[in-house]
Structure formats: C-alpha cells, structure tokens
Specification:
Length: 463
Amino acid sequence: MLANLRLPALAVLALSTTACINDPADGDDETAVGEPLECEVAIIGGGAGGLHTAFRLAPELGEGVCVFEREPEHGGRIHAIALDETDPDAPRVGTGARRVMEGQEVLLALADELGMVLETPGAAADLINARGTFAFTKDEFVPLYGIDPDPEPDVDQETWFYDQLRFGPKRAMIDSYPDFRSYVIDVIGAEGYAFLRDMSRFRADFAAPLDARGYLDYLDEEWDVCCTPSYPVGGMSSFIRGMQAATEADGGRIFTNEAVTAIRRVEGGGYQLDTATYSVSAAKLVIAVPPIALDAMTGDIVDEIRAQPAYQDILAVKVVTITQWWPEAWWADIVNPNLPSDNQIWRAWTTEHCLNFIEIPIEPYAAAQQVTRSVYDDDPDCAEFWEEVAKDGTDAVEAEVANGLMHLFNANGITSPAMIDLPIPLETHVQIWPDAWRTKATTSSRPAGCRCSFRRRRRTSST
C-alpha cells in the first residue's frame, strides 16, 4: 500500500506493525525515562487515519486506546482556521482538504454517523488561462495545441485523452516507461501532454517524477469519484472534532503536543514508545504518520520500516495554500457573460503566474466569511517560490497574490466586469505542507521539511 498515490481526505499513510515488522520478541528492552503509561493500542499520529482508528477501537477498548499527536491540534492536513482564532466558535475554513465528492461513500457515511451537516452548492463557472489565452472551457484551448480533436463528439478532449491513457493498448507495457511523463508523451504526443498539464489545476501530477503504473492505478480509483462536491459546515475538521469527541467519550486517551521520538520492541512482547513526557508500554501499535514524521523518530521499528524498498520509493509533494479574508466580496459580480445563470466564477487557474489556482467558496457557510483560497500550488518551483516570498512578510505575499489576481480578472477580455477593484485583505494565512500528498516516485528521494504556517497580522483598513 505504500506505493499508492494521493491519499483521500480521510486517510493517511498508515503502517501497521503486524504487516511491516517481525515478531516483537526479537527486540530489546531499553530503560524507560518518562512517566510510565500503559496502553493496549498506541496510535502514533492524530490525523484522520489515526483518529479514525481510535474512533473505531475506543468503544471496545476504552482507555486502552492512546493517540499521540506532535502538533497542538489533531487533523494533520485536515486543518481549518478562523479569522479570529481567539474565538472557539468562529467560523472556519480549510487550509488543506475542503470537500467530499459524491462518490466517496465511506466519507459520506462517516459524516452521517457523526451528525455533520453538508452543504452542496449549485453550479458555477470556471476561468482558465494558458498560452496567452483566457477561456471558460478546456475544449476552447484545443486549437492552440495543434492536437487532433477527439473523434467522439460527446466526450470532451481531456476525458478522451485520459481514456487513451487508461484503456489504450500501450498500458499493457506500462512498466517499460521510466515515468508517467514518458508514457503520456508516447501515447498522446508532446502537445497532448502539454494540454493535459495546462488544463490541470494540480501541476505536480505532471511536474513530479511520478511512477507511470502508480499514477494510472491512482487514476483508476480517482477518475470516477465524481462529480458533485459537498462541504461540511465547520470545515473538513468537523470530521476530526467529531471523531475526537466520540473517542474521548468512550474513554480513549488523546494527547497533543506529544511527539513520539522513539519506537522499540520490548523483550517478551509489546512495544516501547518515548515522548517528552511519557514512557509508553503498548501491546499493539499503529503508526499513522507521514514519512516526514517517521524520519524524525529512532528505534528498531523505525529502522525496519525505513529500510523497506516501498518506503524508500515514497515521494512527498509540497503544497502551498494561501487563504485570505476580505472586507468585501470583490468577486461577487465576476461572471461568464455567455451564461444566463450559474455563471459566477468560482474557480480560476493560470499557467502564467504562481498563483496557479484560486478557489472562491460558494457554499453558504464559507461564502459568508468572505474568504478565498487565493493560492493552491503544488508545482515544485512555484511552491518553493511562495515559501521564499512568505519569508519577506505580509506585504510581499499580498502584493504577489494581488499581481496574480489582477492578471486573471483584470482586462482578460472575456469576464464581466472588464475591470475589478481589489481591496487589501483583512488577513492572509500562508500554509506550507511539505508532504501534502505522497506518491511512488521513479527515484528514491524524499524532500525534508516541516509543516509550517504563517499567520499574517489582520489589517484594519480596506484601502
């Protein structure tokens, strides 16, 4: 399972010791140094995967379930923030995962089990910028790429290309290609590859050295998870809060700011975990953390996992998101004038600026916050660019975002109104995920880093 690509919103890299390591009796028993703590099952990682495991085990094991999370709060990449972080009841918006798709039946069932409220907004319009051109649909760009239009009039060009990649005769030879890029170019040509890259909001799919078989396996799972999104009231972290509350109500013990630093076998059976506070004894162990967290730990268990070829093949993809609150909804009147209804622009992406992709929430809960995810960027070069800009402070980030927004919405020649008046944001939050999603790479390389966020001071003026 370690070779799988993007992990869904409520899954994390979970390494089960029963599947990954040898009999516990083969280990050593080192002297405990922290406060003794006994658990039936120790779960390392309080992200979605770790909490869901605890949520399912706690009704049976109660306080025997222990979750250890290194961050101040649970959730991992399911992380929501508020304009006023001092108000626990303030509305929140996700900096990572935001939505559940209609085909994700497990998530929808879990939302129902937790009593969550989901909002499903109506249709809206896209704006795309590539090769010096603005358009509302991907098929409008086909002539710019010198590619032959697909022969099926009822299928859009992008879908037709992906059908060739997924179901074409060359897939039988998938293991002969050094990477996904080589496979795509061989199947649909260099300009076909460029078309798919430019029409995608997720640039790392084409910029990272992805394993061809792994990516096609991912497409088989992901492509048909479609098409209507639903958004939890309270953000995707409503899943996290619900599972945490239920786990604790059943007696499960959850620890935050408690990084596990070492994992060892104990002679005679069981496991020993070290944290800054505790020396944990556990009969069973679940590791539900990404490689970047596991690499910070020591011990024989960690060494064995890291030695596995499948683990060494994992590539972490960095993502930067920039969330902004505004004094007014400057986007409210930006529409596709060719449509009589459902014409408000809610997504726009560009190949010509590291803004990459802006998403304007239209579900009532988030829309009322006058907030945008002004940047979602997983292009390796642009992610590094935003990280560097963030080091220069609020003004630098906001100026660069403004440049991108003006490029997209000012005098693009197709949206109405022709010009926009962009106010100064009330607050800007930069979130850097060094391993936002993981894939099987063509080389055994993984970037280092830490989960970082930069909260920018709120402004009091909109001019």
